[in-house]
Amino acid sequence: MEPQKVKYKRSYKRIIIIGMIFLVFAATAMAYSFSKNASQKQGEKAFSSEDKYTIMVMGIDSRADDVGRSDTMMIFNVDTKNDNVSVMSIPRDTRVQIKGYKYDKINHAYAYGGHELSRDAVQSLLGVPIDYYVLIDIKSFENIIDAIGGVDINVEKRMYYNDPWDDNGGLHIDLYPGMQHMDGKKAIEYVRFRDGEGDIGRITRQQHFIKAVLEKILTPSILPKLPEIIKEVSATVKTDMSFAYMLKFAGMLPGMKDRQINSSMLPGKPAYIDDISYWLPDIKVLRQNIAETLALNVTEQMQRNADETAAEYEKSLPKGLKVLNEDLNKKSDENSTDNADSAEKKTIPVKPQDITVMVINSSGINGAGAAAADTLMRKGFKISSVETGRTSSNENTKIMTNDDAVSLFYGMPFPCVIMTGSGTKQAVLTIGRDFRK
């Protein structure tokens, strides 16, 4: 699927990071249990009486000539008393105030000032302190999955995508529904898959991937592979978390195996200006959700701070910013096309307002993404995001959609090739150099 070229490299890291962080905890715990030289000082009173912790986890895509960006950002709320974990994904395009740099995308904070500036931006956004940070180099993901012997994943739907222009020399994804064993390379295909669902679909796959990794690392077959796992994991992680606390969190894993990990996305709405996409946080809802998760009593001062921060944020929005569909971050009840009444649903005519489209400008033409999004919205389609491609190598404009929606894209005022293969009620428009505004 053509559009994944742009957001795969950003989206798959958000899913990878969850499995990797639990892998870190598990490997550390096992290393401690089987090491004769483990420090006995871990029994000292290193822990506070608090049983809830907030951990900022970032996946860093560093390069030789660039400090990189935090292409993945997640907030883990850990309740050690009840063995509960909730995870909130913060979209990389979230518009926040960065100290010394005004308002910008949150992933830029790392480039400007490392994890310290990222931490400051997140704390200001959430209104609560971050207890620990974890930085993970996601480039070793394939090796880590291979080190644990692969994972078993139940692929929820047909996933097909072919992009010869992908930055890594081409990307081909071809997965069929059903349970299958995946090595590192195949697992990357699963987590890199992206369609018109955007973050909604990613959160669903995130749950699947977490379960698969947890099930695998808690099996006896992992023990012989422990040295290789520790070697792979230790080279990818930087944190201010002590060994004692990593051990404490790792001890939660057995109790979590059969539990649902609450996963959500930062509440907000998508917007764009020109070809720049943003995620605009709903600060009031966010602060309320955080308070409920951490079981905090919301004081009048906290409520006042949330109201003032939200009002200040609204005033900061630039002129010309176009807000997209505000309900796109609400998870759909239709996560699979394989449900029992899918045949019945196919008899209902699909309308443009039923289709969510992700627009990616890979043409090199300034403003082409915004122009295409405007055209689609005038025709009634919903827009999930407007992105700028990493390259401008695509010659032709392509629309990938579901079989039932193909006819809705006929007669577009720009040349395009219409293909099938996306999920139900989704489409991705990848703009090529043949696009005409």
Automatic annotation (TrEMBL):
The keyword Transmembrane helix belongs to this UniProt entry's keyword annotation: yes
Which residue stretches belong to region Disordered? 325-348
Kindly list the residue ranges recorded as spanning the membrane: 12-34
The protein's matches in InterPro entries, at most eight in alphabetical order, are given as: LytR/CpsA/Psr_C, LytR/CpsA/Psr_CW_biosynth, LytR_CpsA_psr
Q: What family is this protein classified in? A: Belongs to the LytR/CpsA/Psr (LCP) family.
Q: What organism does the UniProt record list as the source?
A: Pectinatus haikarae
PANTHER family the UniProt entry points to: POLYISOPRENYL-TEICHOIC ACID--PEPTIDOGLYCAN TEICHOIC ACID TRANSFERASE TAGU (PTHR33392)
Asked if the keyword Transmembrane belongs to this entry, the reply reads: yes
Name recorded for this polypeptide: LCP family protein required for cell wall assembly
Compositionally biased region (Basic and acidic residues): 325-334
What are the record keywords, sorted? Membrane, Transmembrane, Transmembrane helix
Q: Where is the Cell envelope-related transcriptional attenuator domain?
A: 69-217
Q: Where is the LytR/CpsA/Psr regulator C-terminal domain?
A: 354-435
Query: Which Pfam families is this protein grouped with?
Result: LytR_C (PF13399), LytR_cpsA_psr (PF03816)
